[in-house]
Amino acid sequence: MPFSFDKSLLDNVDVGIVVYDKDGWVQFVNATHLKFSYYTYEDFQRFNTYDIYHSKVSNICLFDKAVKTKRPATAIQHTYHGRDDSSYDKLVTAIPILDEFGNIANVVSTFVDLNDFHAKYSAAQQESNITYDMSPSKKYQAQVIYGSGEMQRLLDTAKVIAATDVPVLITGESGTGKEVLANFIHNNSSRWESDMVVVDCASLPEHLLEAELFGYEKGAFTGANASGKRGLIEIADGGTLFLDEINSMPLALQGKLLRVLETQQVKRIGALKGKNIDFRIIAATNADLTTCIQDGAFRVDLYYRLNVMPLTIPPLRERTGDIIPLCKHFLSRAFKRYGKTKTLSPTAYQTLEHYDWPGNVRELKNFIERLVITSSDFSGEIHTIPPEMFGADANLSRLDRKPKASSLSLSQSEEKELNDIVSALYRSGGNRSLAAEQLGVSRRTLQYKLKKYRIKVNMEPQVYIGETPAAKE
Questions:
Q1: Fewest C-beta in 10 Å: which of 61, 206, 314, 393?
Q2: Within 13 A of 379's CA, how many CA atoms are on the CB side?
Q3: CA distance 211 to 217
Q4: What is the mean pLDDT of each run of 10 residues along the chain (473 residues)?
C-alpha cells in the first residue's frame, strides 16, 4: 500500500522516524533520524530492516517483533556506526499499521537518542522546579521565583517570622533580592492590606532623608511646603516600613530612628509633640553592621533593636538552583517588553549556571535583557553564549575546564581544535549532539574527531584524551 503524507511535517519532529513497508523496505526517513546517521536519504531508500539487523548495525530487530505480534514493540537498542567504532543507545518503538483486513501495511519506527533524552529530561526538571510564591494580594510585589533548597528554607523561616511583628534585619550582597524578601514578609503578615513603604537610605543626603522620614511642620525650614508634609514613617502607619541600606543612615538620624522605635511615636521637624504610630520595621544591609559599629559608623543600640530576627540571603553563586528559574522568568518579561520570543538551549543554560554572577540576581536580570535585545532574530533558540558578553573582567574559570595533556603529536591548529572539542563536551555535560551543535558541526563530524583525537567521554561526564585511567591500571 502506498504511504503518503506531508513529509515536511515529520521532518520537524525532534524524534527520529522511519517508515517501512510490510517487507521491511524503508519508505521514508525524517531529518532528525538522518542527523544521527552517517547515511543519506537515498542510502536509506536501498535499506531493508533485516539487512540492517544482520549486518550488526543494531542488536535488536523490533520490526520483526511488531510484524509477528501486530502490536507495538519497544526496546533500548544499541546501535553501531558501520564506518567507525562508535555506538550509542536509542529508545526505539516499532508500531504496526494495519490495513482494512487486519494485515500489516506499514511499520512506523521512532528513535530517541538517550543522550538527547537525558538532556531534555534534565531541562524539563529544571523547568518544573520553578516555584512562584505569592501572597493573597499585591502579587506583583510578593512574587518570589526560586528553585533551590536554600531559598525554600529561607522562605519557610520568613513565613514564620511574617506572622509576628518583630523587627527583621535582612543581610546579603548587593542584588540578591533583599527588597523582594521584605515584600514577601509584608505580604504574608497581618499587615498585607496596608502599604509597605520603601526608603533607600543611600539615595538621599542627610537633610533630605530626615525630612522624608520624619516629615515637617509648615515653615519648619526655608523652602518647606507651606502646609507641611507627612513623613514616610507616618505613611507606614498600619503597614511596614522597609529601610534599605540602613548602614548608610547618618548617625544623627540613627538616634532619632531609635527613639521612634522605642516610643512608637514620630515627631515631625519643627513639631512640639509626637504622634503615635503603629508600623513594623524591616531593615536591610549589604554591609557587615558589626564592622560598621567597630568603625563608629553605626549605633550598637540600634543594631540590637533591629537585629531581633536576622535573615541572610545567600549570593546567587551559592544557590545555583535558582539560576534557571530566574532566567526563564526574566526571559518571559523581556518577551513581553521587546516582542522577541527566545528560548535558551541546555548548553546556554549550563553556561549561565557556571558563571559566578558577582552582581547576583540584578546582574542576571540585566544580562538576560541584554541577551534578548542583542539577538538578531525575533524568535528561535539561543544555542551558545559568547564569553565576551560576561565582560572583560569576568571570572569564567568555571565555564572552561582545561583538558588533560594529550600524548598525541598535534599541530597548533589541531591542538586548538582538540581544546575546542573538549570545552564543548564539558559545557554540554558530555552530550555529543549538544557539543556538535555548539561547535557548529554535524554529529557525524564530531564522532570522527572524537576517534581521531582518541577522546573518550564517560557518563559522569569526564573527558579523557587517549586512554582512560581504568585502561592504564
A1: 393
A2: 2
A3: 10
A4: 63 85 88 76 78 57 86 77 56 88 89 70 50 43 78 93 95 94 94 92 84 81 67 93 94 93 90 90 95 94 95 93 90 78 78 88 92 70 76 52 47 76 70 80 84 63 38 35
β pairing state of 16-21 and 104-113: antiparallel
DSSP string, 200-240: ETTSS-HHHHHHHHHEE-TTSSTT--TT-EE-HHHHTTTSE
DSSP lists the bridge partners of residue 215 as 230
As a whole number of Å, the end-to-end CA separation of the chain is 58
Rounded Cα distance, 399 and 401, in Å: 7
3-state SS, one letter per residue, for 232-279: HHHHCCCCEEEEECHHHCCHHHHHHHHHHHHHCEECCECCCCCEECCC
Identity of residue 200: D
Encode 111-125: b = buried (16+ Cβ within 10 Å), e = exposed: bbbebbeebeeebee
pTM exceeding 0.70: no
Q: What type of residue sits at position 38?
A: Y
The secondary structure of residue 25, as a DSSP letter, is B
Conformation bin of residue 221: beta by default, left when phi > 0, alpha when psi is -120 to 50: beta
Sign of CA dihedral 206, 212, 218, 222: positive
> Which DSSP state fits 411?
-
